[in-house]
UniProtKB/TrEMBL annotation:
Membrane topology: Peripheral membrane protein
A Pfam family of this chain: ABC_tran
Molecular function via GO: ATP binding
InterPro entries: AAA+_ATPase (IPR003593), ABC_ATPase_HisP-typ (IPR030679), ABC_transporter-like_ATP-bd (IPR003439), ABC_transporter-like_CS (IPR017871), MetN_ABC_transporter-like (IPR050086), P-loop_NTPase (IPR027417)
Record localization: Cell membrane
Residues covered by the ABC transporter domain: 7-248
Keywords: ATP-binding, Cell membrane, Membrane, Nucleotide-binding, Transport
Protein name according to UniProt: Amino acid ABC transporter ATP-binding protein
Amino acid sequence: MNGKTAVEIRGATKSFGTHRVLDGIDLDIRAGQVAAVIGPSGAGKSTLLRTINHLDQLDLGYVKVLGELIGVREHRGRLHELGDRAIRQQRSRIGFVFQNFNLFPHLTILENVTEAPRAHRRPTPEKRALELLEKVGIAEKAHAYPRQLSGGQQQRAAIARALALEPELILFDEPTSALDPELVGEVLAVIKELARTGTTLVIVTHEIAFAREVADLVFFLDGGRLIEHGPAADVIDNPQHPRTREFIGKVL
Ligand SMILES: Nc1ncnc2c1ncn2[C@@H]1O[C@H](COP(=O)(O)OP(=O)(O)OP(=O)(O)O)[C@@H](O)[C@H]1O
């Protein structure tokens, strides 16, 4: 952990139609920290995560990621917005792991992992991809297609793909929610291993016990608001807010 801020969010506000999904969220995550975002369904967790990667844009407030400002607006109009090229450049520093893996179905696992490094003209993409597939335990699937893999294997391939550009920050959007229960452990084990490497991780998860074990910081969202946050041991073992207590009581 080097103390630099990896993610700074201020006044994050967003509505879909008349439904306010994020309502004035402020949060900070330092480089090297592992942050878990928890909360009931519809709380705004995925939307918050997506704004960090510019997949969703804020109506108000700002997100500063790895020192760069993205999606800033004020009441009377937009103040600052990165251009497409800058967004692409920034995304190359951020890995994103989706709930439903989002692998390219027509490419082999190896091709899925080498696609971004090739596009960015990185050296030896294949060698690096094979190392990553080894790391997530599916090297033998390099030449298979996504449909030939179990959900857990596909998600591990997706994690290898997210690592291919050596991101400084990796965002996980409910990475185990689409998996059969017996496959959850193998994906969590890979994330746990990553957490030890000092890469900044932000994980939206329903796996509270996992968040307790792996996260440095936990953010509890409800109704688009950040209700409580702090070290995992405090928020999960000793929640202060009645809504956090109720949620933790239900899910643990
Ligand atoms: N593109 C969209 N258009 C309209 N409404 C949306 C869109 N994306 C999300 N929403 C709504 O915003 C609210 C928050 O969604 P979000 O996915 O951020 O919540 P969440 O906390 O991640 O929930 P879950 O745990 O169920 O995934 C939900 O009511 C959802 O239906």
